[in-house]
Amino acid sequence: MSTVLSEQQSEQPSEDGRRKARVEGGTVTWACNPGFPPAAIFPFTPRERIGIRNLYEFQVLMFRPLYWLGCEGRPEVNPDLSLAYPPEWSEDGLSVTVTLKPWQWSNGEPICADNVMFWVNMMAVKGDRLGYYVPGYFPDNLSSYEKVAEDKVRFTFDEVYSKTWVEMNQLSLITPMPKAWDRTASGPARASYDVADIPAVYDYLVAQNGEWTVEANHFRGGWAESPVWSVVNGPWRLKSYTVDGVVTFVPNDKYSGPNKPHLDEFRQVQNDTDELMYERLLAGPDAPDGIQIGYLPFGMGLTDDGEDPLADSYRLVPQDVFVVRYMPFNFDNDSTAARIYKHTYVRQALQMCLDQDRAIREIYHGNAYRMDGPVPPSPANPHVSPKQRKDPMPFDVDAARELLEAHGWDTSTLPARCVQPGDVAGCSGDGVDIGDEMSFTIRYVEGKAALTRLLEMYREDAAKAGIELKLEPVYGSVMVAEDHSPDVPSKRLWEINTWNGGWSFYGHLTGEMLFRTGGGSNFGDYSDPKADELIDRTVHSDDPEAMYAYQDYIAAQVPTIWSPGFPNRMFEVAKNLQGIEPINPYGLINPEDWYYVEK
């Protein structure tokens, strides 16, 4: 519930055109998605903890990236909120110099070239533990990187790359790290200057974060008081983190950026299910346990005519961001199921059994769109290929069944059985034996009503083609930690999973992190030499044909099951809370811009 503590006021327009006084101060309570409390404060985050919840709604409030993406709702670099001035390129297009702004950390130290070198040194040594790292790309594609002044770093690349891609997908990966983090359990280190110190410093910082995949991580309760994590350069600092996942931020009074917080506190609270979320919304933003920003769960609340039953207390704000929705296959798996779905025709049959159009109508009430490949069609952008716009792979259960039968499967039973093994035309393919069954398990995030309905519908339609889908609900944070970690036994056991989403882009809509061999967020460990070649073309050139060729190939290969795209959340925002819009197209939030007006 909001509490006004001071009254520095200015006139602001309301929805009906009348002027309402801005009120400085107060608290905003934000409701998180079920199953995903913040689980990583160290911004050098591995694949098993990477995602919007940890990065864009938690870490970046305290630790800013070198370049901030999203400017007044547009998909571009925001020069005002970035830590550095625009990059300066050499004439040959190989070298770029980055100059830091004269901003500071909360402990008074300047944000400097050493902080950038610290991060890049860590990527050079521990890149395989960063969810954004892609072998062969940054920093592997650097001939050199060096501090050239206290506020300048120069990067020299091994080839000429797209300047758009370098700024938005390479330099934006850098989150400068303060000298306070350059230490080990034994004391201060020199990782900013000497990569030999990186392993011990990294181990120390991970220890201060707490084990990545342990849900009962007792370190979280001490993050706010930590001499490491309390040194921030963003507009917010952590006041507290409770064992049940309630996060409280307060303004960083040493923040150097242009937008100082208007609020006194920003709280993030957990909800176990969509149903509980909806109950809290029905109680209203001024209830004793009220929330000022929640989300309207898909499949709940909206009438058939699209009317919002919460409109008296909230306004509906779709969070439409660049996100590709999908369910990855686990290619790092030796099971019978994996040997079956490693064949492209099987994945195509699975894709043909997902009725996206019906789901958009019946589950998402029209607040969604088809996702047919690796480039999201919304927000509107010019990068979606003509083929994906006009001729995507259709929903066609009969065609799926015929495709399986043409490859040696008897679909008259459920699950279908292999009756013609072999690696020649008309047979099931290498690794599939006679009697093998077309049966797959989908692990999915529990507590999401729309996702559950989508998967139940999918299971019903797939069965008509002889494909058995077994659904296994799992607590969200546990599922991604287990299934996306390279270090736990379950990594090799899951078959298909979905965390109610996919990948939210931070930068140009290329696919190196998701589908290139070894990509840090290539959660299913997909690997295809032709896909690698096509992805490489997109990062070397801004030619739209390169983007089209890449996405058309990936769409047809179905390395993941493409599922309906929809806004990250349908935000319900208290009517007297302003500054939320326009929505950042990359999913970042700026609560420092939010403020109350008089009711």
TrEMBL record:
Q: Region Disordered: what ranges?
A: 1-23, 371-392
Give UniProt keywords alphabetically.
Signal, Transport
Principal place of residence: other
Listed Polar residues bias regions: 1-12
In terms of InterPro entries, this protein maps to: Peptide/Ni-bd, SBP_5, SBP_5_dom
Solute-binding protein family domain location is: 82-483
Q: Where in the cell is it found?
A: Cell envelope
Q: State the similarity comment.
A: Belongs to the bacterial solute-binding protein 5 family.
Q: What is this protein called?
A: ABC transporter substrate-binding protein
Natural source organism? Kribbella speibonae
Source taxonomy: Bacteria, Bacillati, Actinomycetota, Actinomycetes, Propionibacteriales
